[in-house]
From TrEMBL:
Metabolic or biological pathway, per its Swiss-Prot or TrEMBL entry: Cofactor biosynthesis; coenzyme A biosynthesis; CoA from (R)-pantothenate: step 1/5
Primary location group: cytoplasm
Keyword Transmembrane helix included in the entry's annotation: no
Gene from which the chain derives: coaA
Subcellular location: Cytoplasm
Record domain Phosphoribulokinase/uridine kinase: where: 98-241
InterPro entries: P-loop_NTPase, PanK, PRK/URK
UniProt protein name: Pantothenate kinase
CDD domains linked to this entry: PanK (cd02025)
Biological source species: Microvirga terrestris
Length: 325
């Protein structure tokens, strides 16, 4: 199924699109005087396997986004203070600004989230920025197997959504030392008893496949929260289906020579396979699981994002679509 690119998806001839679309060069100019605070070596350390990113990409795309977010965070803090004055409320704990990062497997969500975290943490007032992935909120493999969901791992029903919603609610309430479960890509499972602690950050980045997925609306109007209800801003990383397919298979082949060779790896059995057989397995995983999830659950949430970053075949971001206020 061919997917429209961002420009055709968000910019209609009738002028009713909720987005304003920028070319790469137009967006890069919005950096203004935002300083480059990362080095080329640091950028290399932040990138994921098979997701190349350069200092030029950071300067053209992520510095302007960092500048925009700095303005949005300041405006949100002002709105919060105004609300507190209206309610004649005592001074409450600060409310963290939460940014969601969504998109397909292999599109580069992790790289984007880490680069944003590094840039935002180096603002002049050095805010405290934390990053959490929704992988930790997946149901454990034993539970997925019991429910017959191992072939749908990463689909909305494979997550403990209640636990994720409670986590985000506690963060938004300004609670101290909120715990989130940890996931290991090496063993391909949630790690029992392992947690990360989020302690009242200024900004929290939440990265995951389906973070923009809405819940099914109840007929009786009962309030059912979405994960995205807790987001102040969201980024969807987009790419053509054919590119995502190619990136996924190439990453799988590269992992055969790296992480898959670890004796503890869940995918250790794939490390020694002939390349042709490994390609067949990667193609099967893509078509049977990841492509289906992309088409059924991920792409339909694209239009719910505050910002859409559209990648070209080389992972270079070509257009940026910003939702109008």
């Amino acid at each position: 199924m061919d997917q429209p690119n961002v420009v055709s998806a968000v910019e209609d001839d009738d002028g009713l699109s909720p987005y304003r679309v920028f070319s790469r060069d137009e967006w890069a100019k919005l950096r203004a005087d935002a300083p480059m605070t990362l080095t080329a070596d640091e950028v290399v350390q932040l990138q994921s396997l098979n997701d190349p990113i350069s200092l030029d990409e950071v300067a053209a795309i992520y510095l302007p986004l960092s500048r925009l977010l700095s303005l949005y965070v300041a405006a949100t803090q002002g709105l919060f203070k105004a609300t507190q004055r209206f309610l004649l409320a005592e001074k409450d704990a600060k409310v963290p600004y939460i940014i969601g990062v969504a998109g397909s497997v292999a599109v580069g969500k992790s790289t984007t989230a880490r680069v944003l975290k590094a840039l935002l943490a180096r603002w002049p007032n050095t805010p405290k920025v934390d990053l959490v992935t929704t992988d930790g909120f997946l149901l454990p493999n034993a539970e997925l197997t019991r429910l017959g969901l191992m072939e749908r791992k990463g689909f909305p029903e494979s997550y403990d959504t209640g636990k994720l919603l409670h986590f985000l609610a506690d963060i938004k309430a300004g609670k101290r030392n909120v715990k989130a479960p940890l996931y290991s890509h090496l063993v391909y499972d949630v790690v029992p008893g392992e947690e990360t602690t989020v302690d009242r950050p200024d900004i929290l980045i939440v990265e995951g496949l389906n973070v923009l997925q809405p819940a099914r609306m109840p007929k009786d109007g009962t309030a059912i929260p979405f994960v995205s209800d807790f987001f102040d801003f969201s980024v969807y990383i987009d790419a053509d289906e054919a590119d995502l397919h190619r990136w996924y298979v190439n990453r799988f082949l590269r992992l055969r020579h790296t992480a898959f060779r670890d004796p503890l790896s869940y995918f250790r059995r794939y490390a020694e396979l002939p390349e042709a057989e490994a390609i067949n397995i990667a193609e099967g995983l893509w078509n049977r699981i990841n492509l289906l999830n992309l088409q059924e659950n991920i792409v339909p949430t694209r239009q719910r994002a505050s910002l859409i970053l559209k990648k070209g075949a080389s992972h270079r971001i070509e257009t940026v679509a910003l939702r109008r206020l």
